[in-house]
Amino acid sequence: NPDGTTELVKNEFYYWKAKKKNQRNLILLTGDYQGLSSQGQYELCEKILDISEECGIQEIYTLGGYGLGQEVTTPKVLCAATNKNLIKIVKKHGAVFKKNEPGGGIVGASGLLLGLGRLRGIEGVCLMGETPGYLVDPKSAKAVLDIIMKITNVEVNLAALEKKAKEIEQIAHQLREIETHSKDKTDELKYIG
Fold first, then answer.
1. Which of 21, 29, 111, 126 is the most buried (most CB within 10 A)?
2. What is the pLDDT of residue 58?
3. Under 8 Å between Cβ of 60 and 113
4. What is the pLDDT of residue 192?
5. Beta bridge partners of 59
């Protein structure tokens, strides 16, 4: 922690009860840890699915980032799903499915929960916000949450996330200036008169 104290890493479940007819009850999983080994990943995801099944879940939505390695002005949200009907649903709400591009893997719990869930008869979707991949990216997170809010008909106050996005944008701008300044200094040293 910032104050020098420690605490155990954890994954936590939260239950949200639907407030309107067009909403469903939600179980939210947050965590700051994934298994370090393949075996640990599988054990953790299986336990998450065991608990989720006991609660009667019907679908899984996992969230993540899609690193591009370059600056992203307006992040798209890419999707992958365990069936075509779910792809239609998330596309209707703004996600993009890259049909004619070669596939890639969804790493970590975001992919494993979908695969293992499907083996149990639970369909799912992964939503991945485009991001440069080298800084925490609240702008990408907001793009993903905007789609989740449309799918679930649940409004979430994103003011803190929007504030963080502005802070990160300032940090990214400062890094770009430092990089430009460093290149200028390097160019100056190349010429000896």
1. 126
2. 93
3. yes
4. 52
5. 123
pTM for the predicted model, two decimal places: 0.81
Burial class (CB in 10 A: 0-12, 13-18, 19+), 100: exposed
For residue 71, CA distances in Å to 68, 130, 136, 159, 172 come to 8, 10, 13, 23, 9
Say if residue 102's pLDDT is above 80. Answer: no
Q: Yes or no: say if 107 and 67 are a contact pair by the CB < 8 Å rule.
A: no
Rounded average pLDDT over 109-124: 95
pLDDT in tens, 24-60: 999 999 988 788 889 999 999 999 999 999 999 999 9
Neighbour tally for 27: CB within 10 Å: 15
Amino acid code (one letter) for 144: V
pLDDT reported for residue 163: 85
